[in-house]
Write a sequence for this structure.
């Protein structure tokens, strides 16, 4: 079977229900409006193959659409995920506050080195805005996660967000591969390509729970 | 099932939910024996227990979150109850009932009986409006919300029951019990509660319990894996969709996938678009068919009461989750090295050039494969991707939490039989457990043998040494070299200079990173970071020269500490 891509990234869309995760997904995925797939067995429409520096990267996007209230977002759900989009709704304060809970959930369940990005969605609805862009940025700085405001409706920054996340994952993987390759990079100082967001403070505080 | 387990698993989750429909008082719970007589279903294991036929529970202790409940109207009667884990030998124990005393069949049957009316109550209007995703969900989609709550309730209860087991063996026994419940639910086509139980075992609090999973029999693990496979999300929930197609009524499906489909339809076909109604009707029809299910199960009021007593307040869900996770950490402390963040695996698992990553659902699988791989890899520089669970299994040797401190001193590392916690032989790795002492360099390999992973000029100050604060500590300059899990210190030749040549070629100190963590030094210079060993109570502060270098050091050290593993216990079998 011919492979139509060079690598596959599993990405998750996480956030409260109603923040527009599915709209973002529909805006981005290639078969977004091929609606006949919605409940079709064996066909996953939540995919899109993008080109990153000449490499075909297939993004497989997992979405909890409609199921946020079930406690099914477990370790099994996070397993194998390489990037997580944390989505809140700029017109919904609660969804913004819950980002912290989602991050904690990710810390408990997902891989420590999973790439994350915060999206403040529905930024087209400026008149109903409850969360300022600055607060979003502040939160992102606090967790050292990239942040962008998006509008699935106006197709603003959605592409950018996915490309950025995918690029970060790819960079991290390449760095790791290089590091694990015994022929290269073993001697001397490693090339500093580290751009991952470490959170030592959180890390320590978690340890002190013991 | 051995009954001795009851002595440490009497605790039952009881989270009371005041707005809930069934309002039975806690006090008059002892169910009458005649319930049994009425029952047409054999009571299985219960018959030998005269005290079983009652359902009395105490409150689930919320710990420091208790204050949140002050406003709760039923707070008063909840305060009658006891915090978790102090049930043993209380005067209560003659009326306390535990999940283990109920046969899996009874639990499965009664859960199904409780689920069914709740499922049937769901109205099409709740669904077509996607009301459950709205802020006013309680008014526009009350039954969807109630059904979701039932799911979460079963899931929380399962987690709590398992965590109530005091030893890994006891917990494994409870886990096995719930796997049997799951099997029964599967037989009943109750995919709703089945998934709730599966999710509980996959939750962060349970999934990470390596020792517990290790005590689970191969058969139970396989059973669990098989059931869990149904709920893989791969290819748009293919496994579950196929399965739903293949079974006949009665069936209580997992509502989640239907909700997902409805949300997608809602977005793909906004109100007014021509296909919306047709598409939604397909989903509604399918649900309607399932809603016509009838089960011929005799109600067992004492079991139902028991199951109903398990509640939770949705607003406090976060705290319940928190408490459960904390309890889980307390029961089986993570190794101090880099495993503080729950179950881990690595992005490295996927090869860049790669094929589709295969996602292995089962923790037990991971345990198997992980343990195989671990055999040869402990203390080697190269990272072998496994689930963190396996690694923590490997590294719990250093799991020095307050609960295990004393035991660890007596117990040689790696020598505990996983099945019964008896001692095996004293492994050679004990030496390693005497961690992170500064060793004379003569013990270590010669300098030229050392591969260097990272190095640089740093200044170091001792803040805390074995719990004692060092008041007269000064900054010392070192050339610091990292190799594998070792840090080598080279003393300075002169008073300044930051190049390698400004430092001696013979090292003066060696530090093994086992048990250490690297963190930012809060409120200090931007280039400062700390190495902390919580066990020995030693803290060193470093200045790396620049914030960037400090970040690099932390990352490098974390990378190493994350992969430190201990040799596998001698009697751990691999199941693959």
């Amino acid at each position: 079977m011919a492979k139509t891509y060079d690598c596959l990234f599993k990405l998750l869309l996480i956030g409260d229900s109603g923040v527009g995760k599915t709209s973002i997904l529909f805006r981005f995925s290639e078969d977004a409006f091929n609606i006949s797939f919605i409940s079709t067995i064996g066909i996953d429409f939540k995919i899109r193959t993008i080109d990153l520096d000449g490499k075909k990267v297939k993004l497989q996007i997992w979405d909890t659409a409609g199921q946020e209230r079930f406690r099914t977002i477990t370790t099994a759900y996070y397993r194998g995920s390489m990037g997580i989009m944390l989505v809140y709704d700029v017109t919904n304060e609660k969804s913004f506050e819950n980002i912290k809970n989602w991050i904690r959930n990710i810390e408990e369940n997902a891989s420590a080195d999973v790439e994350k990005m915060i999206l403040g969605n529905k930024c087209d609805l400026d008149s109903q805005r409850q969360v300022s862009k600055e607060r979003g940025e502040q939160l992102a700085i606090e967790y050292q996660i990239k942040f962008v405001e998006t509008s699935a409706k106006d197709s603003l920054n959605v592409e950018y967000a996915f490309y950025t996340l995918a690029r970060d994952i790819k960079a991290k993987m390449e760095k790791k591969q290089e590091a694990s390759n015994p022929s290269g990079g073993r001697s001397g100082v490693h090339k500093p390509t580290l751009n991952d967001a470490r959170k030592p403070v959180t890390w320590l505080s978690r340890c002190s729970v013991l | 099932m051995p009954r001795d387990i009851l002595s440490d698993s009497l605790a039952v989750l009881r989270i009371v939910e005041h707005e809930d429909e069934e309002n039975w008082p806690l006090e008059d719970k002892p169910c009458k024996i005649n319930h049994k007589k009425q029952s047409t279903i054999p009571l299985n294991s219960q018959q030998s227990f005269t005290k079983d036929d009652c359902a009395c529970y105490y409150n689930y202790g919320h710990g420091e979150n208790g204050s949140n409940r002050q406003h709760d109207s039923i707070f008063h009667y909840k305060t009658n109850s006891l915090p978790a884990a102090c049930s043993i030998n209380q005067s209560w124990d003659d009326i306390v009932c535990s999940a283990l005393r109920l046969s899996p069949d009874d639990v499965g049957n009664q859960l199904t009986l409780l689920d069914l009316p709740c499922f049937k109550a769901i109205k099409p209007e709740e669904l077509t409006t996607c009301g459950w995703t709205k802020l006013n969900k309680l008014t526009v989609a009350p039954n969807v919300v109630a059904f979701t709550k039932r799911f979460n309730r079963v899931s929380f209860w399962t987690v709590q029951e398992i965590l109530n087991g005091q030893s890994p063996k006891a917990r494994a026994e409870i886990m096995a019990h719930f796997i049997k419940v799951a099997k029964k639910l599967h037989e009943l086509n109750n995919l709703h509660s089945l998934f709730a139980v599966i999710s509980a075992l996959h939750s962060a609090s349970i999934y990470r319990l390596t020792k517990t999973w290790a005590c689970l029999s191969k058969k139970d693990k396989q059973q669990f894996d098989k059931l869990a496979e149904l709920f893989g999300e791969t290819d748009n929930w293919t496994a579950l969709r196929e399965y739903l197609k293949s079974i006949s009524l009665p069936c209580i499906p997992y509502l989640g996938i239907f909700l997902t489909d409805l949300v997608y339809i809602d977005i793909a076909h906004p109100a007014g678009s021509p296909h919306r109604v047709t598409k939604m009707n397909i989903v509604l029809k399918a649900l309607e068919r399932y809603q016509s299910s009838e089960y011929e199960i005799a109600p067992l009021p004492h079991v139902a009461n028991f199951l109903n007593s398990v509640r939770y307040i949705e607003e406090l869900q976060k705290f319940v989750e928190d408490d459960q996770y904390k309890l889980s950490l307390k029961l089986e402390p993570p190794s101090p090295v880099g495993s503080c963040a729950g179950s881990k695996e690595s992005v490295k698992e996927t090869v860049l050039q790669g094929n589709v990553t295969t996602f292995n659902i089962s923790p037990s699988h991971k345990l198997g494969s992980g343990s195989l791989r671990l055999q040869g890899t402990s203390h080697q520089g190269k990272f072998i991707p496994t689930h963190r669970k396996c690694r923590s299994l490997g590294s719990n040797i250093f799991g020095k939490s307050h609960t295990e401190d004393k035991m660890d001193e007596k117990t040689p590392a790696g020598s505990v039989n996983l099945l019964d916690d008896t001692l095996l032989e004293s492994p050679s790795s004990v030496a390693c457990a005497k961690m992170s002492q500064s060793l004379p360099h003569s013990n270590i390999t010669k300098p030229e043998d050392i591969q260097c992973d990272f190095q640089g000029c740093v200044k170091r100050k001792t803040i805390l040494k074995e719990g004692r604060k060092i008041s007269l500590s000064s900054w010392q300059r070192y050339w610091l070299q990292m190799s594998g899990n070792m840090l080598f210190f080279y003393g300075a030749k002169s008073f300044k200079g930051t190049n390698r040549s400004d430092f001696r070629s013979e090292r003066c100190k060696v530090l093994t990173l086992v048990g250490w963590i690297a963190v930012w030094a809060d409120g200090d210079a931007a280039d400062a970071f700390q190495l902390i060993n919580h066990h020995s109570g030693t803290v060193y502060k470093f200045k790396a020269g620049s914030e960037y270098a400090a970040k690099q050091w932390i990352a490098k050290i974390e990378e190493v500490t994350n992969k430190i593993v201990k040799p596998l216990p001698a009697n751990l079998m691999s199941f693959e």
Q: What stands out?
A: Confidence is low (pLDDT under 50) at residues 184-210 of chain A. Chain A touches chain B through 80 residues (CB under 8 Å). Strands of chain A lie at 7-14, 47-52, 55-63, 83-89, 115-121, 146-149. Residues 5-176 of chain A form a domain with the Rossmann fold fold (CATH 3.40.50.300).
